[in-house]
Amino acid sequence: MYHSLIARALRVRRAYARVHGRAPRLLRPRRFTEKMQWRKIFDLNPLFPILCDKIAVREYIAERVGREHLVPLLWSGRPAEIPFDRVARPLFLKSTHASGQVIMIGCDEILDEAAIRARTEQWLAINHGDAYDEPGYGPVPPRLMIEETITTADGDRPNEIRLFVFDGKVAVINTVFVEDGKIRNGAFHTPDWRLLDWHFKRIVDRVFPRPSRLQDMISIAERLGDGLDHVRVDFYDCGDRIWIGELTIYSWSGYSRFNPDDADFLLGTYWRTRMPEWRTILAGLFRGPTFPRRRGPAKAGR
């Protein structure tokens, strides 16, 4: 138990240092990115595997805010069962147990079905929690899913509005958009839509209008984040209609490099990690380094 906990802490420390050029403070973290490393090593909230499971989290969301903002689920299952000929395109095929595993299939695209099945089999063979030291993903049954493709009234892919919630209150909002087929980080705003001078590698010279249903997003996000010290609630903004994309507990795995550097500290001030020293000791003594694995086969979907 102790050996694996120490091994994870060393891996996380080395990975953070490679990205940021400094070792993280783990016992008394101050920065947002440092607190994310602390969470990855020591915070074993039993709710995390549900929030990380893209199918299980749908029930969590429905119980708290209703189903009307859930993107319709068209199918879930194994690679051999992918219904290429039964689901309307365009479609997004993604895994339920990891982050970043997505294939977009266009309307007129000629498919290599065997290659897609092989690629997605490789996805399911990877335990994202072990591979990326994000333990909330560890117990999630590996499956695939297809949700309905949502667009704006003009038929464009909507912006993604990410609300950073701390102790049930939205503190910062990040807008993500699509450019040249790639997902780009846009801008950071306060809850009253005041632009923050924060960015990562590049400054985006683009104005992001205040979403028409911003207050609804804030209300929903705060209800979903109630009882959690931190969660990110991701919405798709279609104007008169808003959809919940997912709930994120390991934003950028804590490897985002904020510019200016003070933004990392400021975002960290909203995240109150209560008694981190004692919780660290208790995690090591009584809870071990990870969540228990779920038993039984993953359920096939619709």
* SS content category: alpha+beta
Cα-to-Cα separation, first versus last residue = 39 Å
Nearest-integer average pLDDT:
89
Q: CATH class of the largest domain, anyone?
A: Alpha Beta
Please trace the helix and strand order, writing H or E for each element.
HHHHEEEHHEEEEEHEEHH
- The side-by-side strand order for the widest beta sheet comes to 8-7-6-5-9-10
Taken as a percent bin, the fraction of beta residues is: 15-25%
Number of E-type strands: 10
Largest sheet: 6 strands, antiparallel
Domains (count):
2
Shape field: globular
Report low-confidence residues grouped into runs of 5 or more.
295-302
* CATH-level-2 architecture of the largest domain: 2-Layer Sandwich
The third-level CATH topology of the largest domain is: D-amino Acid Aminotransferase, Chain A, domain 1
How many separate helices? 9
What level of helicity do the residues show? 25-40%
What Rg is obtained from the alpha carbons, in whole angstroms?
19 Å
